[in-house]
Amino acid sequence: MAKDPDSEYLSGCLFVATAAILTLLPPIFFVSTDVDDVLPVIGTNAGLQRLFTWSAGYSALFGLIFSRLGGLAGAFGTLGGYLCGAAYWFLTIQQTLVKTLAKEGHPTEYPDSTVWLVPLAWLGIGIVVSFLPMLKNPRLKHKES
Fold first, then answer.
1. pLDDT tens across the length of the chain (145 residues)
2. Cα dist from 42 to 12, 20, 22, 70, whole Å
3. Residue 23 neighbours by CB under 8 Å, 6+ apart
4. Does residue 13 lie within any of the structural domains?
C-alpha cells in the first residue's frame, strides 16, 4: 500500500537535506577547527592526507547509510553534500597555498595541482558512495502488476 504523497515528498526532502549536511560536515569539522593550528598541518603532505582520509571515511559512512536507507533521495542528497564538499576542499586548499606563501615565505609541500586533484578525488569518492548502494536496493526493482 502506498503512502500519502505528501509524506513521501517530506521524507524524500528530509533525506536529501540530512544526507547533504552530514556528508558536508566532516571536512568542515576536521579542517576548520582553528585556522592557525590547522595551517601548518594542512600545508604538509602528511597533514593533508590525514585530514582528507578522516573526512572521507566519515563522509563515506554517512553517505552509504543514507544512500541505502533513503533510496534515490538519499543518494542525490549524498551527492549534493559531496559536491559542496568538493567546493569546500578547493577553496580551503587554495587559501592554504596563498596563506602559507604569505606567512612563511615558502610554498606548501604539495604542488599547485593539488587544488584541483583533491576536489576531483572527493567528487569521485562521492559518486561511488552515492550510487553504489543503489545497485542492490530492493526499492528500485520493478514489479509487474
1. 457 777 778 888 888 898 999 999 998 888 776 555 555 667 788 888 888 999 999 999 999 998 888 888 888 999 999 999 999 999 988 888 888 788 777 777 888 888 899 999 999 999 999 988 877 766 666 555 4
2. 36, 24, 22, 34
3. 59, 62, 63, 66, 77, 78, 81, 82, 85, 126
4. no
Residue 106 domain flag? yes
- In which domain, by residue range, is 50 found? 35-134
Residue 30 and residue 25: Cα distance in Å, rounded? 9
Domain count, the chain: 1
84/20 Cα distance (integer angstroms): 8
Residue 108 lies in a domain: yes
Identity of residue 40: P
Asked if residue 76 lies in contact with residue 88, where contact means CB atoms within 8 angstroms, the answer is no
Report yes or no on 27 lying in a domain.
no
